[in-house]
Amino acid sequence: MTDVTQMASGVFDKTALQPLYARLATEVYGKNNEDYIMCFETAEFPDSGLGFVNKTGFTEPPGGKNNSANHVLNDHTYCCQLSGAACATGEPAKNLSKSASTSIN
Questions:
Q1: Looking at residue 19, what is its pLDDT?
Q2: How many CA atoms lie within 13 A of 40 on its CB side?
Q3: Distances (CA, A) of 53 to 2, 58, 65, 70
Q4: How far apart are CA 8 and CA 33, in angstroms?
């Protein structure tokens, strides 16, 4: 990647993934089945990292409008991103569940 502006959180989602997913939604999914359900997701990096999870760069679902019944945003993160010690044993501690839910904006 030569354009370093793509490394800002949410930028790659908005400028690269959103147009790609929109083309897939209209040219592939929608063309073959108007009742399709399309799952899509963000770029893992730089949207999240050790100790943080940022908002996505998507402004709407691929080829659709907000609250569409045809789209599922799989905005996943990993518990170990909360801190380096979060998964010291291989599993997150139960007391970190509140931290995980409050770290997502």
A1: 95
A2: 27
A3: 24, 15, 24, 25
A4: 35
- Reduced to 3 states (helix: H, G, I; strand: E, B; else coil), residue 92 is coil
For 98, phi then psi, to 5°, come to -70, -40
Q: Which residues of 8-44 are buried (b: 16+ CB within 10 A; e: fewer)?
A: ebbbbbeeebbeebbeebeeebbeeeeeeebebbbbe
Amino acid occupying residue 4:
V
C-alpha distance from residue 105 to each of 24, 52, 86 (Å): 28, 10, 19
Strand partners, 38: 71
pLDDT of residue 105: 37
Q: What is the mean pLDDT of each run of 10 residues along the chain (105 residues)?
A: 75 92 92 90 72 80 87 74 65 62 42
